[in-house]
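In response to the reviewer comment on reproducibility (Comment 2.3), we provide here a single inverse folding case reported in full, input and output, so that an independent group could reproduce the run without further information from us. The structure tokens appear first.
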């Protein structure tokens, strides 16, 4: 089948069987070498690989499977309906096999079952293929997403390890009992000879070695068949060395006897290593399940079914069967299934799960609704405009998944070391064995074996491999909870280094629309002004009418109306002549301004636009209109300044208006009267001063500056162009999110540094100890059992430390205060 991926597309493949950084490094290097692949990035914590470029899905899957790993697939069944279901069913099978990511198609009576790779196949594509043949597909199951499959894989491994862990632990406990049989006085009750005791230990350890430890041995064998090694290679080699040595001591004791002293067996060492590492893996998998809770919560926001009206009938259908143009019915307490526009009804919706804003919003006819939001009070019907992977929720989820799959630059050092880690450890272990065997004290072979096993067991590439992706996973998920979407790992790393945040003014720090702020006349005259403006399309006129409606004013009928371009309006209402406009219009009309000059200068000095109003040739008042500052802007600026970050406002407005806005929100650095095409040049100027710059904007004219900045931050209330150009998106449009994003970046990078420090320090300190480097001076050696415990603890420590990011809480009440224990 032809499964070509389009050039600019990023494909996410689930990969099963990767256990450590060595595994992920092999997969990454192999896929990077495929023709057409621009970038391959493996996320060990998410068990997936993100591929960017022009390649065939089959080629990528084959490359992964040749390395001994598995690309999991999932199965969906559709019922066949429509006129073409009988005549074109066979053609459908062939057409579906050509869809990228489809592994198998099985046709049965009135149904088709498709096995596909999550992340590569869109349900919309399957439906389109069928509809082209006149067949309508009705899904029998709810949508299955990549994250659900990954969770299923995690649970399967969790159960497999638990099944082998507890019996192994009991058997190892009994083995320890035999090791200390005489010491604990049990030999008085049941005498056992040394040989009998050792054979009993062997019998108890065999199931642990070959059944409990089979997960390690099978993986090590599969890896070895492909000419490579990983963490399981070290565990398997170490435990088998101890087991076979102990077995030979029983079978041929004369080989190991030194100066009349019989050699000891180490069955409990072999079994303890397997049980302790299984325990560590068990705890690690359980902890990793919590790292992806945010993305799973996003995926489960949308309901699995929807109620639609088709051909005059209400139907309850699977979510994947909703198509653009469907009339969708939502009742109180239900979730909105897809994106659309309300056709009938009115309600309040809780959008906090997407935007982070706690206050419900009111939506009526003509207003947009977003899939995944919760309907609270009323019922309404809306037309579906975006379904499937085109919905806002699906795009947000995809962006979060992409960010979690990406690697920040700080991860490259760990990847480089991990790629040579296992061969290096094998070399160190071999040298350790030779040195102790040749130069060590008697019994030198025993010392050599135990230290060889300790080095193999204690070395842990897992901690290195998990140090970065687990923190990124939790950090980006936490960002999504607060309405912050991060496009990639680079942005998350760079954001914590930002020195300067540059805000575009209009729509970012301000509401982006004119609002009437002042009126100096009477309410009666105000009603006439609003009535005169109701037929104008000018933004200021709309602001006047909106203010009047907000005050619940009844607007009188207009007898005549004339819009004067660039000047204002003239109207006749109740036999009275109304003029509303600029100073220039009043001069042309010969209307005396009386004592208006002082008020005009005051309003204009505060950055407001002043408009004059006259009734029957007499000035009756002045109204001031302004693009008002968002109520959160002052706090947003204060929080950034509390973080030690410079704040600059960039605007095309005149300096007087810009300075008035800046004074109100506490900004001291202003760049005014900047043309849209010069905004990027201003960002470059700041960068030439050696500063790391973040740009915050929402409009099309901000896109070049957002792309030029080291970190571009777009508001979700802005244009799609701005969001495409940005590295981060604030869904709610709240500028306070900028400080939250930077603080989260700092917390995440601190967490990654802590993880990397632990991973490096652990290996640098304990590998020499395991090799017996300090024995000549301190007389200290590390037991393989303690080595296994330390190795198991290392991965659990890294994942647990990453989970602390889940406690990150921005304190909106006080600037500069961040709640994250330990940071």
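Designed residues, in position order:
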């Amino acid at each position: 089948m032809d499964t070509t991926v389009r050039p600019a597309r990023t494909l996410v493949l689930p990969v099963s069987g990767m256990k450590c950084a060595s595994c992920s490094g092999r997969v990454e290097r192999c896929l990077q070498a495929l023709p057409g692949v621009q970038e391959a990035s493996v996320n060990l914590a998410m068990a997936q690989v993100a591929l960017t470029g022009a390649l065939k899905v089959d080629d990528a899957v084959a490359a992964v499977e040749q390395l001994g790993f598995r690309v999991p697939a999932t199965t969906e069944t559709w019922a066949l309906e429509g006129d073409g279901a009988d005549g074109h069913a066979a053609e459908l099978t062939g057409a579906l096999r050509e869809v990228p990511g489809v592994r198998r198609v099985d046709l049965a009576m009135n149904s088709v079952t498709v096995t596909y790779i999550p992340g590569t196949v869109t349900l919309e594509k399957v439906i389109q293929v069928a509809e082209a043949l006149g067949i309508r597909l009705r899904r029998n199951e709810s949508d299955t997403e990549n994250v659900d499959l990954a969770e299923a894989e995690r649970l399967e491994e969790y159960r497999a390890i638990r099944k082998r862990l507890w019996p192994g632990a009991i058997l190892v406990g009994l083995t320890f009992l035999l090791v200390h049989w005489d010491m604990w006085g049990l030999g008085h009750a049941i005498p056992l000879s040394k040989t009998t005791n050792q054979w009993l230990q062997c019998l108890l350890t065999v199931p642990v070695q070959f059944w409990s430890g089979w997960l390690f041995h099978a993986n090590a064998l599969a890896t070895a068949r492909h000419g490579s090694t990983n963490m399981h290679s070290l565990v398997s080699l170490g435990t088998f060395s101890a087991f076979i040595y102990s077995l030979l001591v029983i079978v041929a004791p004369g080989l190991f006897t030194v100066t009349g002293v019989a050699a000891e067996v180490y069955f409990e060492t072999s079994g303890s290593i397997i049980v302790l590492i299984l325990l560590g893996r068990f705890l690690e998998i359980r902890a990793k399940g919590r790292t992806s809770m945010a993305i799973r919560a996003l995926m489960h926001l949308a309901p699995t079914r929807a109620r639609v009206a088709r051909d005059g009938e209400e139907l309850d259908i699977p979510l994947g069967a909703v198509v653009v143009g469907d009339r969708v019915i939502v009742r109180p307490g239900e979730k909105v299934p897809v994106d659309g526009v309300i056709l009938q009804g009115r309600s309040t919706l809780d959008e906090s799960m997407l935007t982070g804003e706690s206050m419900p919003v009111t939506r009526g006819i003509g207003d947009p609704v977003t899939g995944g939001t919760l309907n609270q009070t009323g019922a309404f019907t809306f037309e579906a405009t975006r379904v499937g992977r085109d919905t806002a929720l699906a795009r947000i989820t995809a962006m979060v998944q992409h960010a979690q799959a990406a690697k920040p630059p700080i991860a490259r050092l760990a990847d480089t070391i991990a790629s040579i880690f296992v061969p290096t450890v094998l070399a160190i272990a071999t040298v350790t064995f030779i040195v102790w065997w040749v130069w060590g004290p008697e019994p030198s072979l025993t010392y050599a074996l135990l230290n060889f096993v300790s080095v193999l067991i204690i070395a842990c590439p897992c901690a290195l491999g998990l140090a970065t992706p687990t923190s990124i996973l939790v950090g980006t998920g936490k960002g999504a909870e607060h309405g912050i979407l991060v496009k990639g790992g680079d942005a998350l790393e760079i954001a914590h280094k930002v020195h300067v945040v540059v805000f575009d003014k209009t729509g970012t720090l301000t509401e982006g629309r004119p609002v009437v702020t002042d009126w100096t006349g009477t309410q009666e005259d105000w009603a006439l002004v609003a009535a005169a403006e109701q037929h104008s399309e000018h933004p200021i006129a709309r602001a006047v009418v909106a203010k009047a409606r907000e005050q619940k004013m009844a607007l009188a009928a207009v007898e005549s109306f004339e819009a004067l371009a660039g000047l204002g309006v003239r109207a006749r209402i109740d036999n009275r002549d109304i003029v509303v406009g600029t100073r220039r219009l009043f001069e042309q009309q010969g209307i005396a301004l009386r004592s208006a000059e002082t008020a005009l200068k005051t309003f204009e000095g505060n950055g407001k636009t002043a408009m004059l109003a006259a009734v029957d040739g007499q000035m009756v008042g002045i109204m001031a209109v302004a693009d008002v500052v968002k109520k959160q802007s002052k706090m947003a600026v204060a929080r950034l300044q509390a973080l030690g970050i410079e704040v600059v406002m960039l605007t095309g407005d005149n300096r007087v208006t810009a300075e008035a806005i800046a004074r109100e929100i506490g900004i001291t650095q202003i760049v005014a009267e900047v043309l849209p095409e010069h905004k990027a040049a201003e960002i470059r100027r700041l960068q030439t001063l050696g500063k790391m710059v973040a740009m915050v904007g929402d409009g099309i004219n901000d896109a070049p500056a957002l792309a030029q900045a080291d970190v571009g931050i777009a508001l979700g209330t802005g244009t799609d162009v701005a969001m495409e150009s940005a590295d981060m998106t604030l869904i709610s449009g709240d500028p306070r999110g900028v400080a939250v994003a930077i603080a989260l970046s700092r917390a995440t990078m601190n967490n990654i540094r802590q993880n990397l420090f632990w991973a490096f320090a652990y290996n640098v300190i304990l590998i020499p100890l395991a090799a017996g480097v300090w024995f000549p001076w301190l007389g200290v050696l590390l037991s393989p059992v303690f080595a296994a415990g330390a190795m198991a603890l290392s991965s659990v420590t890294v994942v647990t430390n990453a989970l602390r990011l889940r406690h990150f809480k921005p304190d909106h009440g006080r600037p500069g205060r961040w709640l994250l224990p330990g940071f």
